[in-house]
Amino acid sequence: MLIIKPKIDFEVNVEAEITPDIATDLEYAKSFTVYYGKLEMSLAELFEVEKEGDSKVIVLEGDFSRVKWIGKGMLDGEIIVRGNAGANYGAFMKGGKIVIEGNADDWIGAEMEGGEIIVKGDAKNLIGCPYWGDLEGMKGGKIVIEGNAGNYIGEKMVSGEIEVRGKAGDFIGTEMKGGLITIHGDCGIVGGDMKAGEIRIGGIFELVPAFRETDDVFVGDVNVKGKGIVRVLTL
Amino acid sequence: MENVTCTFCGAVCDDLYFDGDEFRTKDFCPLGEAKFSRKKRIEYPTIDGKKVSYEEAVERAAEILHNSKRPLLFGWSSTVNEAIRLGVILAEKVRGIYDQCASVCHAPSVLAMIEEGIASGSLGQIKNRTDLAIFWGCNPVEAHPRHPTRYSVMARGLLTKGRADRKVVVVDVRKTVSALMASHFIQVKPGTDYLVFSAMRALMEGYEDAVPEEVGGVRKEKLIEFVEMIKSAKYITILFGLGIAHTRGHDRNVENVIKLVQLINRYTRCILQPMRGHFNVVGAGEVAAWECGFEWAVDFSRGYPRFAPSEFTGVEALLRKDCDAALIVASDPAAHFPRAAVEQLKRIPVIQIDPFPNMTTLLSKVVIPCAISGIEAEGTAYRMDGVPIRVKKVVESEYWSDEEILEKMLEKVLKLRED
Amino acid sequence: MILVKNGHVIDPVNGINEEMDLFIKNGRISSEFKINEKECEVIDAKGKLVVAGAIDIHAHIAARKINSGRAMRPEEFRRVRQKTGKFRAAVGRTLLTAPAIGYEYVKMGYTTAIEPATPSLYTLHTHEELDSIPIIDKAALPLFGNWHLVFKFIAENDIEKLASFISWVLEKMKGYGVKVVNPGGVEAWMYGSNAHSIDDLVPYYDVSVRDIITGLIKANEMLDLPHSIHIHCNNLGEPGNYETTVDTMKLANGIRNNRRQVLHVTHVQFNAFSGSGWKDMGSGTEEIIKLVNKSDNITIDMGQVIFGHATTMTADGPFQFDLHKLLKNKWINLDVELETGTGVVPLIYRPSSPVHSVMWAIALELGLLVNPDKNVISTDYPNGGPFDRYPYIMTLLLSRKYREKEMERAHKYLQRAANLPSIDIERTLEDIVKMTRSSPARILGMHNKGHLGEGADADVVVYDINPAEFNPDKYREIEKALSSALFTIKGGTVVVKNGKIAGDIWGRTMWVDATLRTTAEIIEPDLEEYFNYYTVNRENYGVEERWMRRAERIEVG
Ligand code: SF4
Ligand SMILES: [Zn+2]
Q1: Does domain B41-105+279-418 have CATH number 3.40.50.740?
Q2: Fold topology of B107-274
Q3: Looking at ligand 1, which residue's alpha carbon is closest to its atom 2?
Q4: Does the ipTM surpass 0.85?
Q5: Per-residue model confidence as pLDDT tens digits over C161-201
Q6: CB of B110 within 8 Å of any CB in chain A?
Q7: Which fold has domain C54-444?
């Protein structure tokens, strides 16, 4: 297990594409390249890095809200963020687990393919979404936001699961092609150009006016001849 | 001088008269006239408020940019392409961020274009062919005052000879002055444009059963009528503004109207035209696109361009405290950015290049006055439809042009890099 | 001064295919023979291939089209080709940034490229972009085939006026020649339709496609411009379209020019389909090849497709809309007042697709069977794929073995729908030099390019290929050598060493001034009338030489 703490108050954000792969080799971890603005630096120049045992776990202590890209493309192991997290955590992730005990920034689990992300606080926008220009969003795995979430959730999602325990913003499951999104609280616009998959909502929401109502669910979006299902959660 | 080009709004009128000796204008709209009037200028370059030479100011600016970890180079929509190009190269060489005013304006329209492309045309397509013009979430009478006469509502063209040959619809959340020009006005509830576009698409394809009786405060029959009006027109232009791009739904609104336009083209012809604001905000995007692949929100910290509109716009970089110096060209973020972003601007060294003093001048360490593009300096600008138009030098001036200042700054930066 | 020593020079124009020295002085090839080696940069090219810089006759490298494509496709710019340093950062997959375009061209030994479709209203933008492409020489062809004033002059059957108009436009726009895209069809698109044969009529003006093409050929020949008209035929991308292409080519019958062709048909692959629909679409090259080979007034370029990503972009508005519907991909359309249209749609060419495989084969059939003196290698960048894959195309033409290997990847439908499998021909190095150097130079009327004779531009390339030991079966090595020149010299400056950028200079933009041959007065009333319909003032329409970085005016008269 690695324990990583920022050494200084950063002047600009840091991009640290670390995965649990570095947790088992302290020297490698310390020399791992991170980006501090235009400067290429080693992890140890900006962070205190300590090792305890050989488990494939990274614990991030202190404020990581200005450190981006943690867990990019990780395959296995675990990352625990004790405080708030920056943008792009778990992007392209294929396996393993990320637990964020504070709040998360934008792009949590963007284009993720597998594994699990749990955010105990709130998350911002673009959860499990595709980066600009890409045709597919989340392809697998699970993202749970225990607090509230922002706009754009599960766009172009192909498979996997996103659950928001609190409220969410606009554009849930836009152009969704598969998978499951559950929002327990209220949210905004839902289901635009949805092709397939399912969205379950517990609170008040605005369905795109291009769905057909059947017995217990809405099916659409008719504009893309969609077979997506929007279901109202009942307790 | 005849055929002068106005450098205020995105309509970039090029049929104007301006007498540079007397500062006398003819045919300008009030907005353009205000730009082409004598105004208080920044008199000389300063560092920390003290008068310095151009050379000293440029040198200090270069040092600041060179020594920072991620400088933000922001503005650009009110200068010419020649300066913008140097700005992009400067951002690349100091490994900073290039961002421009679109990021607080029509960037959602560009994001939407990434999703769906856009069916568009030059403004002459409205003038010559359009028999149905739809203004949606924009107010040309106030924002682009000569647009209706020169290009759209009243313009006399080859096939559409004038106002009588053209239906005009205004869609907005309230009856603006522009609605007075319209043959039809449709009022939608704020924040529902996305829903209305989806409903119109469904109605166009005959999925009436899926559309509720009322969408966005508009009754279904009225929407059906609207859709029929569109289908029976020959060449439709939808012009939209920040009422779509900067209200709830942002880029998704624009994406949905693009999809609507794609669909209309299966029945008849239709183009979409964003009503861009500053005279060269299109250039600020286009030049960057050919120089580095992206139009705005570009970070060069790794020695090559990366695009991240939720991280590297001017506002986001400041809010995230992700820049440690800033160069502001022809823009006033101190007046227009959110408060928290301005707070960060106050914390970092700021270099300003501008002809006129503004709020940003007050917090700038290095202030470099410049010639006014289109009055004291020439160059190329792109109209809202991307048509390139030369803006002219009609008044002699001692001030350096943006282009000269940036050229020198780039030279200095390259020199510092070598050492 | 540079001395390229002992290289194996292939220069078909001057009949050279042997070991010899090349001396470069003042940016040109010199025939001085008393050379003081100490004053020269000496490049030892013993056992290496030495040729002139190559010319891309048709690549959409600048203008509003490619730039809108860039804005629409950020996903294209994640490929990093060069980090910023002494030179500019260069990025892009099939769409490249302007710096990347210049660098990638010279790395493969290309030193000139032609932007083949600029809408005049947007041509100042085109020149700004061309001016941002480093190193190479370039030129732009304004679009004429759907211009209302052209329709008007054709309707009046006034070729003299049309010729005056062409020279007026070339001067105004600093253009090099006359481009025609889907004549009449793009104007029909403004009404939601298209032109489907050369007998279709243009709405409002009632002129036929046939009249537009013949009129433009005649006007172009009346001016005797360096280049002939350059046409993208009607019905592009439609099964059975080879017939339209043949009909179009026949319009050149009886019109002659001693120096060159009178009709250049571009990216012919896209216009050489047989069949009545996608189910029976096949190669329709046979008649086209026969016709081109027996005519002395028609030339073509290939329009090869490369398997992988591409971005289609043409002035052919209705075609782009059809492609958008077919692929359900994002779509840019730009209707340009009174002049033309434009469209952009991304595409992936898949070897698993029967149609794409046949398209791949069609272009190679053209490359193998059309006389290399009348044919040029192209991908219609970025329509068929990225230009940095030209070495792949050259190698396929050179090596039958490579073709067979690639054919295994392609869909087996091509075995029956194309003729390629039965073609044994292997092109020689000299053929390839023709198809990339001497032919495009002659077709474009660029007499200082495409060869290494006295006075030619000192655009010289040294490849790690020994013609004396050339073995087409070693295709990997050949492709690699062609991809990365040992040396590229542009106008006398070494710009590439061992496949890496070594020098950054600015090339020229060539334009043709034929105003001495015409009188603008005869079209004055027409210009006056039509500028009522433009949204730009006549005085502000056009490009001045002083706004360009390095303009080179080529006067004909
Ligand atoms: S409409 Fe715009 S460009 Fe035209 S005069 Fe007014 S401000 Fe200037
Ligand atoms: Zn082309």
Answers
A1: yes
A2: Dimethylsulfoxide Reductase; domain 2 (3.40.228)
A3: B9
A4: yes
A5: 999 999 999 999 999 999 999 999 999 999 999 999 999 99
A6: no
A7: TIM Barrel (3.20.20)
